[in-house]
Design a protein that fits this description.
Number of helices: 0
Shape: rod-shaped
Order of helices and strands: EEEEEEEEEE
Distance between the termini: 22 Å
Helix content: under 10%
Strand content: 35-45%
Number of strands: 10
Structural class: mainly beta
Largest sheet: 2 strands, antiparallel
Radius of gyration: 21 Å
Strand order of the largest sheet: 1-2
């Protein structure tokens, strides 16, 4: 591609040419590509059984970012 200097050039699924500068870091996952799982603990929730022990924690697993679909970037 003549006339383009610096940056990476790629094609979109529709075949359009897109520079790397046409993307920005995903605001949802901050470029990490996933939403980290979290655990929250409260003694009022006692009753979740893990093996032979009762657990006070409720955990959510790590999931791919729904906004950028795991790429870490979104189009501007």
């Amino acid at each position: 591609m003549a006339g383009i200097t610096g940056g990476t050039v790629s094609k979109t699924m529709k075949g359009e040419v897109m520079n790397a500068t046409d993307k920005k870091v995903c605001p949802e996952c901050n470029g990490e590509k996933v939403i980290r799982g979290t655990c929250e603990c409260n003694s009022e929730w006692r009753g979740s059984k893990v093996g032979d022990e009762l657990s006070d924690c409720q955990c959510v697993p790590q999931v791919a970012c729904p906004l950028c679909k795991g790429t870490g970037t979104v189009e501007k």
